[in-house]
Amino acid sequence: MQAQLQNSTTRAIGDFDNFPEITQKSRELLVARGINALFPVQYESFKHVWSRKDLIVRDLTGSGKTLGFSLPLVEWLRKNNTLGSGKI
Length: 88
Known about the structure:
The protein is mainly α. Helix content is 55%, strand content 0%. The chain has a single domain, classed as P-loop containing nucleotide triphosphate hydrolases (Rossmann fold), CATH 3.40.50.300. It starts with a helix and ends in a 9-residue tail after the last helix.
């Protein structure tokens, strides 16, 4: 019972709706790949990366660390019109 409650709580925290920085296009691409919410390592690190703060993360292989760093980075670049513009 506790595991079910913990999973539903984790899922609620990681829902894309809690991260307005994630564009609809990214949401659709993630859902098409079977990612319906952010994993704990991703939602815990998202605001730090989005705010361009230094961050060190350690977690198990397959926990979602790479997406935890790259998703907020891509969304920040998209928001600031630097994604694919050659401005970096």
